[in-house]
Amino acid sequence: MARWAFATAAERRLLGSARFRGPTPWVIAIMSFSIMIIAASGLALANTAGLLSSAIETRYSVEVPAGGRDLGAVLGAVRSAPGVTSADAVSEAAMRRTLERWLGPEAANDQLPVPALINFDVRPSTDLNRIRQLVSKVAPDARIAAHEETVRPLLNSLRLLQWVALGLVLLLSGAAAAAVVLAARGALDTNRSTIEIMHGVGATDVQVARLFQRKIAIDALTGSLVGAAAATVVLVLLATGAAFAGQLTGGATLGAKDFVILALLPLALTALATWVARAAVLAALREAL
Predict the structure, then answer these.
(1) H helix intervals, 57-146
(2) CA distance 189 to 164
(3) Where are any strands of DSSP class E within 171-277?
(4) Could you tell me which of 204, 210, 223, 203 has the C-alpha nearest to residue 184?
(5) Reported pTM
(6) Distance of CA 62 to the CA centre of its chain
(7) Whole-number Cα distances in Å, 232 to 43, 54, 262, 280
(8) Sequence-separated (6 or more) residues with CB below 8 Å from residue 68
(9) Would you call 267 helix, strand, or coil by DSSP?
(10) How many angstroms separate the CA atoms of 46 and 83, rounded?
(11) How many helices (H) and strands (E) does the chain have?
């Protein structure tokens, strides 16, 4: 692309060197802006899902019914089980105080059964059957549940949103490519007489296509960089103005690899536009022969 970016004075006069006078750079800028925002959102969702999955893959809960009267004994049994790294009890009273935020005074009603909970973490490959046996000895009605099973619908939704983001990025890239094709064919029609003269003096289709390819490459690079710069400003404002999101996601942010991917997107969009422009111009020139 480097040699296409430097044109001679004669080549500039052939097709013009004005930038941002036509719609193509603006279309590319809008597409680049949208792609950057959507891609950043998808990467953030992927990081959040990965962080959440790793945080709960070895975390379990014991539900202790009957008013939590066996809570202390169950907690001791869980802590003594092999493979358990930590265990914390959430009493029935604490559970009712939490439910008051949503149910109000009804949460204190004795007719509302509220179990006590024990949250515990285990090492990988821990035998849960051994923990169940120890717990059932002191609380036969207690039930062990994996946090991963509870949060799985949320993880599935996050993964679905990642695929939606990827699909939108591909759709916008396709729309940008279609705009480039229209721009290339429009430029061919506008400069048809010039092209006929070039063919008359011995210019090949590849040489003619290179002129259009160079111009569209410059327009695409300029537009994609402008769109990326605007998206960067928006992302920075969102990151600084939504500090509470870090608490909700456990501190999940965009990493170094994510920034590299985002930085490469404008260049990838420019390369796509350049390749599509070359293919469209060559195909149109062959049809005209």
Answers:
(1) 71-80, 92-103, 128-138
(2) 38
(3) none
(4) 210
(5) 0.71
(6) 34
(7) 14, 29, 10, 31
(8) 91, 92, 115, 116
(9) helix
(10) 30
(11) 11, 4
> Any residues with CB less than 8 A from the CB of 175 and at least 6 apart, and which?
31
**Matching residue, tokens 């179990």:** 115
At residue 64, the 3 state secondary structure works out as strand
Residue type for 135, please?
Answer: V
Closest-CA residue to 249 (of 58, 50, 42): 50
CA distance 41 to 174: 19
Q: Does residue 120 contact residue 78 with C-beta atoms inside 8 Å?
A: yes
Tell me if residue 204 falls in helix, strand or coil: coil
Per-residue model confidence as pLDDT tens digits over 22-45: 688 888 999 999 999 999 988 888
For residues 192 and 189, what is the distance between their CA atoms, to the nearest angstrom? 5
Residue 101 structure tokens: 């935020």
pLDDT 10s digits, 104-152: 777 677 777 777 788 888 888 788 888 888 888 888 878 888 887 778 8
User: Could you say which DSSP state residue 104 is in?
Assistant: G
